[in-house]
């Protein structure tokens, strides 16, 4: 006797599988054969649509907790009790990483700024050379 609807009993002569049960079995067999391929697809899908999924999840959970304030309170209590406490070493390491990222961003901005300055300088030098060339050609024509 099946425990629930999804447990399909073995097929017997007296009671053959229904078309619906056959379809379920075919789909299970298909999933079992293509599990690795499906996992790769899912991984790439979630990787490519990460922001949209997170945004949807945020909105859904916000609405869910707005409608169920007692569940929000229970969730907040659970998070407070199960949150990992950081040691002083971990805090110092986290702060060092944060500072290193900040310095890296500053360096990247400085490099980008310097590149822009160099491009503008090069452009101005080209313009100056072009105008000097025009002036020289006009001076030659006058003589």
Structural description of this entry:
The radius of gyration is 34 Å and the shape is elongated. The protein contains five helices and no strands. The chain has helices at residues 19-33, 35-48, 50-67, 69-82, 88-142. The chain has 143 residues and is mainly alpha-helical. It is 81% helix and 0% strand.
Question: What's the structural blueprint in terms of helices and strands?
Answer:
Blueprint: H1 19-33, H2 35-48, H3 50-67, H4 69-82, H5 88-142
> Could you say which structural class the secondary elements and strand pairing correspond to?
mainly alpha
- Binned, the helix content reads over 70%
**Major β-sheet annotation:** none
Individual helix count: 5
- In total, the number of strands is 0
Rg, nearest Å = 34 Å
Shape: elongated
Q: Which band does the percent of strand residues land in?
A: under 5%
Question: What is the end-to-end distance?
Answer: 112 Å
Poorly predicted regions are none
Rounded average pLDDT: 89
Summary?
By secondary structure, the protein is an all-alpha fold. The chain is built from five helices and no strands. The model has no long low-confidence stretch (mean pLDDT 89).
Which structural traits does this protein have?
143 residues, mainly alpha, elongated
